[in-house]
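Structure ticket #2291
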Amino acid sequence: MGDTGDVPSSAAQSAQSDQTMTSPGLLTRLRSAFRPPDEPLVHDDAPDPTIKPAGSVLGMLNLRRMRVEDVSVPKPDIVAVPVTITKDELVEVFRDSGLTRLPVYDGTLDTPIGIANLKDFALRHGFNGKSPSMDLRAMVRPLIYVPPSMPLGVLLQKMQAERIHMALVIDEYGGTDGLVTIEDVIEQVVGEIEDEHDIEEAKSWVMEKPGCYLAQARTDLHDFEAEIGMTLTDPKEVDEEEIDTLGGLVTMLAGHLPVRGELIVHPDGPEFEVVDADPRRVKRLRVRLAAARNG
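Resolution: structure written out below.
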């Protein structure tokens, strides 16, 4: 779903060979992030008040300095379902996405009504097709609505207090701008939390053969430039300040939203073939570098 800081363990580095240091738990460290700077730091699980917390100070500071907009999933990438969806269709969305919570909307995503939870659905209806017809509106759980400027620490406290682990980001006009989960917030403290579904998503590109890549349109432009060993933002047609992804680069070069099958040629040689797209965005690209290398 998103911008994480590395959170290396400093306990192993700071511990002396003849001394054992007690490492505070995650909740203790989260609480310490909101403690006033001039207040003495005392750990509930540390008998010695002189022991300082082990863990990344940088990661804890992310709760104060980062905002919801820094980690939220953008609106086009949100997997959500209409309240009118059938039971079989909902099963397919859960299966295909690998998600356990899905926003539910009435009409459009700008009119959300709650969350569909996989556990609620499975306990009530199962997956054998023998249960009665589904009323999704009666099954949804409440959502949290937050502005993009809210600090992550405030959102974490709100999620804990209301026991709701998903929030929709609402823009100034009341429309949906993005989505953030409690996992997105915790990852800013402890680093990436990957499960079996994240493994494939983490692969932004694959090399099909030398000089040819299949890449996600959301691939970070600078990361891909480092992979191929060339800069793609030098031509005057490209405004480096306006784009961050391969999809953004291709759209800027084309001058319009490319469609599936369209071929866009970079001024320096690389060719971008749109492999997958919908009316709103480009999804996947095939990048051929042979033209640039032979030129």
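Closing remark: The mean pLDDT is 79.
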